[in-house]
Amino acid sequence: MARPPKPWWHSESGEYRVMIRGQRHHLGADKDEAERKFHELMAQPQEKPVRADSVVALIDEFLEWTERNRDVKTYAWYRKHLQSFATYLSKNGLKAVTTYSIRGFHVQKWLDEMTCGNSYKNGAARAIARCFNWAVKQGYLNANPIRGVEKPKAERRENIITPAEYISLLALIKDVDFRDLVTVAWETGARPQEMTGMEARHIEVRNQRAVIPMKEAKGKKRIRVVYFTDNALAIVTRRMEQYPEGAIFRNTRGRRWTAFSVDCRFKRLVEKFDRKIALYDLRHSFSTRLLEAGVDPLTVSILLGHVDTTVLTKVYAHTAQNAEHLLKALKS
């Protein structure tokens, strides 16, 4: 059962907030005034109250906790999927379904209604499973009622760009700003978020690398080091001088690149390049290129920022299907 609503302090906005029946309320910075507003809100009649033990209320609790304790992007990812599930329940007259009566088939039917691919469905299933697992750990539930729901197998997207294709791609990019972003991504294998968030303070020119602090790195468990080729270092140094504060990779308007803006730029190249690509494809291509050049997996894993070679083995297993590469290795 979800706990009753209670005001909490939101440090980023400097105010008290409360979630009541699925709706967030801003109570102000004064504690006494916040308590007064809270009691007024609780006293207001509701036409369609949401039960405290409803799945919708549990989702709200989880999202509140995620917003306070996790990265903004992580919160947005959970909110997207969980709000989709809440909408499905409401649309099908199940808004008041309780944490006692929900079953795996509710989740399965939600997934079946989706017209997207299995990778997206896999993420959606993981999001709702995480919500209920969290509820068990927090003591709201004794057991996960949807445990065992089969998650659609994520489709591995392998869009490897060869060196020849990369040269053709670069020739299609006319502006320096986007070309710089693509070039450094190709030559370093950095993650898209590492590229778009890279700042002058991260760069160690003498050591030819960027050091991203633990709290800013993916997973927030260890620092991330991105090493530069000579060409990439020259680009980064030039952009550091242009943008000594904030992101060094920006578009022609001087704005930091976002996932959406980068995606839009690549979409414009689809007709000329014959296929859609993403910034992450440059990272995959970087790893494949090094592995096929004979660089040992441990070194490639370190350059990619992986903890060990496990991820490399799973994600880049397609190199094992490259007959030309395997024959070359056999004959060497």
Summarize the topology:
Blueprint: E1 8-10, E2 15-20, E3 23-28, H1 31-43, H2 55-69, H3 72-91, H4 104-113, H5 118-138, H6 163-172, H7 176-188, H8 192-197, E4 203-204, E5 209-212, E6 224-227, H9 230-242, H10 259-268, H11 270-273, H12 279-292, H13 297-304, H14 310-315, H15 323-331
Antiparallel strand pairs: 1-2, 2-3, 4-5, 5-6
Helix pairs in contact: 2-3, 3-5, 7-9, 7-12, 12-13
Q: What can you tell me about this protein's structure?
A:
The chain has helices at residues 31-43, 55-69, 72-91, 104-113, 118-138, 163-172, 176-188, 192-197, 230-242, 259-268, 270-273, 279-292, 297-304, 310-315, 323-331, and strands spanning 8-10, 15-20, 23-28, 203-204, 209-212, 224-227. The protein is mainly alpha-helical. It folds into two domains: 8-39 and 49-138, no CATH class; 163-331, Intergrase catalytic core (hpI Integrase, Chain A), CATH 1.10.443. The strands form two sheets. The chain has a three-stranded antiparallel beta sheet with strand order 1-2-3, with helices on both faces. The protein is globular and about 65 Å long. The termini are far apart. Residues 47-52 have low confidence and may be disordered.
CATH topology of the largest domain: hpI Integrase, Chain A
The helix-strand sequence is EEEHHHHHHHHEEEHHHHHHH
Instruction: Provide the residue-averaged pLDDT.
Output: 85
Please indicate the percent range of residues in DSSP E strands (runs of 2 or more): 5-15%
End-to-end separation in angstroms reads: 64 Å
CATH class call of the largest domain: Mainly Alpha
* CATH architecture assignment of the largest domain: Orthogonal Bundle
Major β-sheet profile: 3 strands, antiparallel
